[in-house]
Structure formats: structure tokens, C-alpha cells
Specification:
Elements: H1 2-26, H2 29-32, E1 43-52, E2 57-66, E3 69-74, E4 85-87, E5 92-93, E6 97-102, H3 115-119, E7 124-130, H4 138-145, E8 152-158, E9 197-198
Parallel strand pairs: 1-4, 1-5, 6-7, 7-8, 8-9
Antiparallel strand pairs: 1-2, 2-3
Length: 200
């Protein structure tokens, strides 16, 4: 019986390995390989006043983008190495910023809008929903809103059980709708979506 179980496990592991190799084979070759001498950037942002506090980078740089990722940041990149060139002279270019207070729960919050419609206007790539959802509707935010968005999202859980769903009526106008159970602080081992409640 133990040998049958071992054979089944080996069969499943072999099948999983073959499936992953098949999936890699389905990808375009350019995705699998590093950028070659004759490959071109999809977009070249030239003359950008580049500022990255995380690495200490500050100065005029050219930025080569390929497959939606930054491939190169150099003092100068020839325009011929790109399919499209954008001149960013006089513009500040930074890594994506974080909006620590926004309302990105459309249809669940009275003032929520889709995160993807918000970030393009404020140069952010990550947002924190500031109490749009409460204990009763947070699961819907996490299950339906976040996966449908390209924007990276985090959230604070509102002290009112329905969050800002009733806006413009004050969420704690009726004090029986506040969450009575304390929120548990996240542990280091367990990933969590929210570690604090928004005070109204």
C-alpha cells in the first residue's frame, strides 16, 4: 500500500514538472531571454529628472521599458534602441508612490471610485482604502474589488460594520452599527489585509 502511495506521489510530481515546462514553452521566447544587443525597448523615456530615494538616485537619466518593466536606467540610451521614445525633459520621474488615504470601494462605499481610475491622475501605483469597508462588507471588497484592479490595494477596516456604505449619513449616527469586537494585531507569520481600524 505504501508503494502505491509513493508511486502516485511520484506520478503527480512528474506531471506537475512537465506541466510547468509546457507552460514555459508556450511563452514567447523574448520573455524567457535577457535583452539582447539587437532587442529594442518598447518605450524609452529620455531626459527624465529621476529621483529614487530608496537607492539614492538623483539626476537626469534615460529609462528603457520592456514588457511593462524597467529594463535599464542609464545616463544616455540611444533613441534607435526603442520602438517608441518619450521626452520627459523638465519632468520628475519617481518609482510609484503610495496614496495612504483614498476611497476605492465602488458600489460598496458611498464615495468609492475604482482604484485604476484614480491612480493615473495622482502618480501612484499603490493605494490604501481608508475605511471604505467595515466588518460586514470587507470580504466583498477583498474578493471582488481588489482582484479586478491592476492597482495594488490595501485597506483599513472601518469601525462601523458597513464602513462608508451609508454616506452621506454619518456612519456612526446609529452607534449600534459600530464593531464591538477588538481587531487582532497581525502576526508576522500570517499575512493580513488590515491591521488597524479607521476611527470615525
Amino acid at each position: 500500500m505504501h508503494t502505491d502511495l509513493a508511486k502516485r506521489r511520484q506520478f503527480i510530481q512528474t506531471g506537475a514538472s512537465l506541466a510547468s515546462f509546457a507552460a514555459l514553452g508556450a511563452l514567447p521566447g523574448a520573455v524567457l531571454a535577457a535583452m539582447g544587443a539587437n532587442d529594442k525597448f518598447d518605450l524609452l523615456v529620455r531626459n527624465a529628472n529621476t529621483l529614487d530615494a530608496g537607492t539614492g538616485l538623483s539626476g537626469k537619466r534615460d529609462i528603457g521599458i520592456r514588457f511593462g518593466l524597467i529594463e535599464a536606467i542609464e545616463p544616455s540610451i540611444a533613441a534607435e534602441r526603442a520602438l517608441r521614445v518619450m521626452d520627459a525633459g523638465g519632468k520628475l520621474v519617481t518609482p510609484g508612490l503610495i496614496d495612504l488615504h483614498c476611497h476605492t470601494y465602488p458600489y460598496g462605499s458611498g464615495i468609492g471610485i475604482p482604484a485604476d481610475e484614480l491612480v493615473a491622475h495622482q502618480c501612484t501605483t499603490t493605494v490604501v482604502s481608508a475605511g471604505d469597508a467595515g466588518a460586514n462588507n470587507f470580504a466583498a471588497y477583498r474578493r471582488f474589488i481588489v482582484p479586478a484592479s491592476r492597482t495594488r490595494q490595501f485597506a483599513f477596516v472601518h469601525i462601523a460594520i458597513a464602513g462608508l456604505a451609508g454616506f452621506p449619513v454619518p456612519e456612526l449616527f446609529n452607534t449600534t452599527t459600530r464593531t464591538s469586537m477588538p481587531l487582532r494585531a497581525p502576526s508576522r507569520r500570517t499575512p493580513t489585509w488590515s491591521s488597524a481600524s479607521r476611527c470615525a
